[in-house]
Each structure stands twice: as structure tokens, then as C-alpha cells.
Amino acid sequence: MTLDRNALQPYFGYFFSSFWDGAASDINNPAHTGAYFSSLIATSEISAVNRVFDLTAIGNDPGNQPGQRFVKATSANFRIDSDTLVGVADSRIGMTGVQGFYAPDWPPSGGGVVNGDFSITYDASRQSAGQTGWYLANNIYFSMAVYDLSNLNLSFTDADNWQLRGDLLMSPENGGMLRGATLNDVGDFCLGVGSHAGCDQVSAVPVPAAIWLFGSGLAGLIGVTGRKQSTPKFN
């Protein structure tokens, strides 16, 4: 994942300061609670480019998770209609990985926020003011939409070879929590499958059969597929 640091700055100086990938935030370790990661949020900015998140397996949500963690499984019926770009209600792609942000100007003396264990899902009621129904949700402490997906553009060859691009908007929920603007553009995304894997980016290593690309301009990759293959990634 990559976000536009200039677009985040108006939210009390909000910036990316900490990151734990799927291994470093493993939900099989009972110490990896939301409170644990909140206590480790740094106060200095780090690069937000190409941060990798693992995708969850298809099936039921993992059980016995650490406190404040609500990782979601990937739904077997997740799909996007190639004509209407409509999704399936209550289906999702799940992820693991945690990131921290710091807002130095948050009153009275700065403050930190964690989010992550994301899920990508569709809600037909989120279709106004540029929203398409698709959104990225946080699942640490509580589930909340953090970014809405907008200005979608689909390149389609067949069911196994396609690419979806668009913009990331600050969700009303996240913007409200941060006491700032909502539905403003804070980055771009791309989901590519099959021959479009990599979203037309040159890679020195093999990429999974499907990828998400988030960020401002060219950003990071996410892998997802129902086929047996190496563990897919989001970055």
C-alpha cells in the first residue's frame, strides 16, 4: 500500500510512522493485540511505499484472535461484474498486517492511530458523491470503512484476465474520525488479474495471478486468487 503523504497532511499533520507485515502481526501470537501495536506507534515518518499485506484464506474468519483483532477471511463468492462493476454484498477479500499513523498536531500534544487487517468489500448503499459501493475497511479494534473506491475503469479480456483501476477517497467515517475532509482523493488503486497481473508494471520477480495496486500514482501490489499457488501478497 502507498498513500499520498501530501493529501494526508491536512489531518493534523497525519503521516505514516509504523508498519508490521503479516508475519510481524501474526494473529497466532496472543501478544499481538491491537493495544500492543498502539503502544508501539512511532512519532517519526517512514516510507509508505510498497508495504506488503498478506491475504487471508477462503473460508471462515480465524478464531481465537488476539484482543482487538478482527481479521476477516476471504469469501469464496467474491466477484466483480464486468459490465456494471457491481460486487456481491457481504463478500470480501481479507488481509493481515498492521500500520500506524502519527498526527503531531492533534490536540493537545499529538496522537497515534493504528489500522489494518483490512478487507475489501462492496455495499450498494455507498453509491453517492463519487462512491461506487466498493471500500477498504479497517478491522482492528472495530470495523470501519477507511477508503472508498471511485472513478473505476475496467479493462476486460475474459474472466481470468482483467484490470480495475480508480481512485482512493477518504471515507466519511475515517475523515470524520480525523476531523477533516471526506471523499477527497488520497491516492489511486489498481486490481489486475491474469495477463494484467502487475497492473502493467515491470517486475523482476513473479507476481501472483491477481494484484491490487494502491497509492498515489504507481504504488504497491496485492495478490489474490482462488487457485492453488504461492501465498498472495498486498503491497
Structural notes for this entry:
Helices cover 6% and strands 35% of the residues. Strands 12-11-10-9-8-7-6-3-2-13 form a ten-stranded antiparallel sheet. A three-stranded antiparallel sheet has the order 1-4-5. It has 235 residues and is mostly beta strands. The protein has one domain.
Strand adjacency order, main sheet: 12-11-10-9-8-7-6-3-2-13
> Helix count?
3
Helix fraction by DSSP (H/I, runs of at least 4): under 10%
Which structural class is indicated by helix and strand composition?
Answer: mainly beta
Q: Which short descriptors sum up this protein?
A:
globular, ten-stranded antiparallel sheet, three-stranded antiparallel sheet, single chain, 3 helices, mainly beta, 235 residues, 35% strand, 13 strands, disordered C terminus
Question: What is the strand and helix layout of this fold?
Answer:
Blueprint (H helix, E strand, L loop, with lengths): L4 H4 L6 E6 L13 H5 L14 E3 L36 E5 L1 E6 L7 E6 L2 E4 L11 E7 L1 E17 L2 E10 L1 H6 L7 E9 L16 E6 L6 E2 L9 E2 L1
Antiparallel strand pairs: 1-4, 2-3, 2-13, 3-6, 4-5, 6-7, 7-8, 8-9, 9-10, 10-11, 11-12
